[in-house]
Design brief:
The protein is an alpha/beta fold. It folds into 2 domains: 157 residues, Rossmann fold (3-Layer(aba) Sandwich); 85 residues, SIR2/SIRT2 'Small Domain' (2-Layer Sandwich), CATH 3.30.1600.10. It is 37% helix and 17% strand. Helix 5 packs across helix 8, helix 6 runs parallel beside helix 11 and helix 9 runs parallel beside helix 10. It starts with a helix and ends with a helix. The structure holds nicotinamide-adenine-dinucleotide and zinc ion. Nicotinamide-adenine-dinucleotide (NAD) binds next to loops.
């Protein structure tokens, strides 16, 4: 794919696929938000590459069992750059799909698709959102800003104000199951839409990556846009290697 002629052919094929699709399903991963200053997990600048303890904070069992893991998680979150991040050209280009967008399934927890203007009812946040907190005991939820204000005011591991239980960000941690209704929407999107676009995801995390084989089995073309090879490039109708912002602008903002 480093051959520029092959790249141009893939881009032209992708443009034609997009032009003829009446409805488009989209799957995005951490790579669509790196240009907004939020690092991915596994890349050279990835969170886990720089700080192996981050993997422990992403596990529900260590989070529940170890108060130190929770204190670290809250301290780091209270200083996180994720809350100041702005959508980039890639998020904005997807808004141009307008009514042709069937469903946008994102593995990201940053809320940037909605911030860019994609209607929230078309977005499935399959790994949850960092913009809310939730209680693991009573299920209470609220805006993340509230919890972070308590942390900044000195509560190192703020308990639920309803029941005294443990609260966490409303994200799906390792060891937690996905929400069945969200998974069903993702699967339906890959079958019902005319085309699937997978962007900035290594396609190594299942069951979400399964959207690609599901679309292929349903006879739908798949376009993969990623900076590096993914595990499922061999299934794609067109593979575009490069920056999500550049490639989506070329495809959708022409
Ligand atoms: P990943 O880290 O496994 O893969 C990201 C992929 O994006 C990599 O293959 C990388 O080559 C590619 N990439 C990076 N920058 C790019 C760019 N500018 N243009 C095109 N491609 C680019 O991430 P994943 O597959 O999404 O899965 C890991 C999990 O990480 C997800 O479940 C998600 O919940 C979580 N996560 C979310 C955020 C966020 O919300 N922004 C950030 C980090 C991790
Ligand atoms: Zn509670």
């Amino acid at each position: 794919m480093s051959d520029p002629r092959e790249m141009n052919e893939a881009l032209e094929r992708a443009i034609r696929l997009l032009e003829s699709a009446r409805s488009v399903a989209v799957l995005t991963g951490a790579g669509i938000s790196t240009d907004s200053g939020i690092p991915d997990f596994r890349g050279p600048n990835g969170v886990w590459t720089r700080d192996p303890a981050a993997e422990r904070r992403s596990n529900i069992n260590s989070y529940l069992a170890d108060p130190q893991v929770r204190r670290d998680a809250w301290r780091i979150r209270s200083r996180s750059e994720m809350f100041d991040a702005q959508p980039n050209e890639a998020h904005r280009a997807l808004v141009a799909l307008d009514n042709r967008l069937h469903t946008l399934v994102t593995q990201n927890i940053d809320g940037l698709h909605q911030q860019a203007g994609t209607p929230p009812d078309r977005v499935v946040e399959i790994h949850g959102t960092v913009h809310s907190w939730e209680c693991v005991d009573c299920g209470a939820r609220g805006p993340m800003g509230e919890a972070l204000d308590r942390v900044r005011a000195g509560e190192e591991d703020p308990p639920c104000e309803m029941c005294g239980g443990i609260i966490k960000s409303a994200t799906i941690l390792f060891g937690q199951g996905l929400v069945p209704a969200d998974l069903a929407r993702a699967e339906r999107a890959s079958i019902e839409a005319d085309l699937l676009l997978a962007i900035g995801t290594s396609l190594s995390v299942y069951p979400v990556a399964g959207m690609v084989p599901t679309a292929v089995e349903a006879g739908r073309p798949v376009i993969i846009i990623n900076a590096e090879p993914t595990d499922l490039d061999h299934l794609a109708t067109a593979v575009l290697r490069g920056s999500a912002a550049d490639l989506l602008s070329a495809l959708l903002l022409r």
